[in-house]
Dihydroxyacetone kinase subunit DhaK
Amino acid sequence: MKKFVNDPAKFVPEFMKGIVLANPGLLEFNEEFQMIKRKDAPNNARVSIVQGSGSGHEPAHVMAVGPGMLDGSCQGAVFAAPPVDACYETIKALASDAGVLVLVNNYQGDRMAWDMATEMAQAEGINVKQFHINDDVAVEDSLYTVGRRGVAGNFFVIKACGAAAAAGKSLDEVYAVAEKVNNSVRTMGVALTSCIPPAKGTTIFQIGDDEMEVGVGIHGEPGRRRDTIKPADVIVDELFDAVAQDIPFVSGDRVALMINGLGGTPISELYVLYARAHERAEQAGFTVVRNYVGEYCTSLEMAGASLTLLKLDGELETLLDAPAEVAVRIF
Amino acid sequence: MKKFVNDPAKFVPEFMKGIVLANPGLLEFNEEFQMIKRKDAPNNARVSIVQGSGSGHEPAHVMAVGPGMLDGSCQGAVFAAPPVDACYETIKALASDAGVLVLVNNYQGDRMAWDMATEMAQAEGINVKQFHINDDVAVEDSLYTVGRRGVAGNFFVIKACGAAAAAGKSLDEVYAVAEKVNNSVRTMGVALTSCIPPAKGTTIFQIGDDEMEVGVGIHGEPGRRRDTIKPADVIVDELFDAVAQDIPFVSGDRVALMINGLGGTPISELYVLYARAHERAEQAGFTVVRNYVGEYCTSLEMAGASLTLLKLDGELETLLDAPAEVAVRIF
């Protein structure tokens, strides 16, 4: 297993500890519940934004904690939902007079944990709402999901809700922002390789040396089909068409365009994909107002990428422009 | 070959086009010389900072073009120095009354190209100096290098020189900053896998399923030894000791600490390494004033990482704090 790990069972708390050591002024770590939160949250003047899911998708979700983004996140083991008590303690730790919004990517395991935790918190009088993100157009229903899966579009929901909360919007208003972004964002991905969860020690699916999985899920769930690897532009064309036709996006739209790496693909290749995607967007009459190229929602060291389009308007552009800070940074 | 490419011969210009399409206000692309430059450079009021090397190390070098960083960069093919005429044209395109500083990572191919280009530019009356970066402590002399190799420490040289140039320092003063950073920065890396250059289509070295290369170069050059993979903390300890004993760093030092991914290692694993490195730095009596965890200087999709320490003082901290902007960003 070609990985930097100590005890595989401690992989998640060890990397979480690293995140907090690297951001000592900003973040604090609760090891018992594998939860990272902003030191200055909750703040009763604003809604708390919370998320928690399986690990292995970094920087989602736990590295997205910071001002203008998540207030806190609890992590399960790699590709496993966090336990109910961790979700419950996370809601309690971030309970604000203004309320708590839990953003859940649509997987049955995560939903079950957060449903129970939300009920428990509500029974204690905490004002908490839950929203489900499901931007993946590849398939309806999946290995671990009823309905569509939540993938890289999650970043935009967090960014917009975090900005709305920072601006003092009410819980209902922030929830409406989540709904608006989720209704406006679509993603599809492709995998060239599997990945190896540290505690498993072997790949999560088999794929031939000349094969790709079109429409893959971020836990290696099957997509639309297995195919031989195609040139980059052909792959982008399929992702772009699937995504753009879904809402649909139409000529004249202002969009954000994201090429998200799944973990093992170098950034140079992501920019090869971006070049084609940008051209396709322009040919379709879209104005690419903002772009995002890098890793936002990964599957450990999986080689692969996804393409996301977000339909913008003045409100969403303002929310995306608002200042934000997370553990992942260059400078 | 599990890669997003079209024609492998066009891999470099295609990803460069993507970078510029993603940063239309900031950058412009000269395809003939595979050169990206700031649109607003040269500026005769400040020194131009220039670099150019083989591709495959992204975000170094070409994604480091931007305000407060490089003014321009020309790229060779993957792992091949840029041609002399590209280097010469890059110097000419960035020629400023205040002078041009060329930052060269210490590889013979790059030095030869930039030596000739610098001479040609000087013969035309352009005020240009050249500085060689050699922060890799792993080995003296290497496959493609006389003396030590230049690796991830390059980021700090660029950042500090870019800030000094933006502050209006003279060419001699900016050169002195490069010298100071290079004298204060040390790096060592380890590889778990090889990588596959698109035009080659096969790995650049062989390595067993349970092996690692300690002290690897960013073109797969041999390091200090081949060994079986060790726990993450053991690996960090060896890198940390090699780096910290080299200047040496001493108790009481204020340092910047970088864990750099070599391309195929997920950021979660980099934070496992960071946690140990941070602890070792504290145990050694260093104050970690700033930290950097992510990809700064890679080797395509190689699984691996390097550890860098930079000894700080007030001047360097101010230069690192100065605003800067590059193609690689989260928001």
